[in-house]
Design a protein that fits this description.
eight-stranded mixed β-sheet, 8 strands
C-alpha cells in the first residue's frame, strides 16, 4: 500500500494586492493544479489586527500557483449572522437591500445592505430609506473601480455616508454592508 501523504507539499497562500499580499496560511496538496479554485476564509481581524473586526469574514479564491506560493483573488465578504442578530432587537425595523451593481471597470458585484432602525418605521419612511440606499450604492459603484469600492465597503466609508443622509429621513441606528459577492 502506497502512502500518498508523503507526496504532498505545503503551499503558502497570499491575499490579493488590495489586502497587502498578506500570508493567509498554508494549504497542502499533491499537485499544484488541485489548488486552483480552492477557497480560503479569514477574518478581517486576522488581516488588520483590529479586534473590533472579528465579525467580518473574507473569502479568497486561489487563481495562481507559482512554486511554493499560491495567490488569490477576492471572492466574497460577509458579516457573521450572529453579529447581525445581536444588532436587531424586538420592535426594530430591519431593511434589507440586495443590489446587483457594476463598477467603473465592469466588475459585477452582488451587495446586501441592511439598515436597522430603533423603532417601527412607516412604509413611506422605509421606502425612502431603501431608495436612498439603492441610489447611493449605484452611484458609488459607477464612479469607482472594483478594488477601492470593495475596500470602502469593508471599511464602512460608503455606509457612513448613507447613514448621514438616512438620519435626515428617520433616526437610523445602523447601516451595514452585510455581504459582497463578486459575480462572474
Amino acid at each position: 500500500m502506497k502512502d500518498t501523504w508523503k507526496e504532498k507539499r505545503w503551499y503558502n497562500v497570499f491575499a490579493p494586492d488590495m489586502f497587502g499580499k498578506q500570508n493567509l496560511g498554508e494549504i497542502v496538496s499533491s499537485d499544484p493544479k488541485n489548488l486552483m479554485g480552492r477557497t480560503m476564509m479569514t477574518s478581517l481581524r486576522d488581516l488588520t489586527g483590529d479586534f473590533s473586526k472579528t465579525h467580518v469574514k473574507l473569502y479568497f479564491k486561489i487563481n495562481d500557483v507559482q512554486g511554493e506560493n499560491a495567490y488569490t483573488e477576492f471572492k466574497q465578504h460577509e458579516l457573521l449572522r450572529s453579529y447581525i442578530r445581536s444588532q436587531t432587537r424586538r420592535n426594530n425595523t430591519k431593511l434589507d437591500n440586495i443590489l446587483d451593481l457594476r463598477t467603473k471597470d465592469g466588475a459585477k458585484l452582488r451587495v446586501t445592505v441592511t439598515a436597522i432602525a430603533p423603532r417601527r418605521m412607516q412604509n413611506s419612511q422605509s421606502d425612502a430609506v431603501n431608495a436612498l440606499i439603492r441610489s447611493h450604492m449605484a452611484e458609488a459603484a459607477s464612479q469607482m473601480e472594483m478594488v477601492p469600492f470593495i475596500q470602502e465597503m469593508i471599511l464602512g466609508k460608503i455606509t457612513s455616508d448613507i447613514y448621514k443622509s438616512a438620519k435626515k429621513i428617520y433616526p437610523i441606528r445602523r447601516i451595514e454592508v452585510v455581504k459582497v459577492k463578486k459575480l462572474k
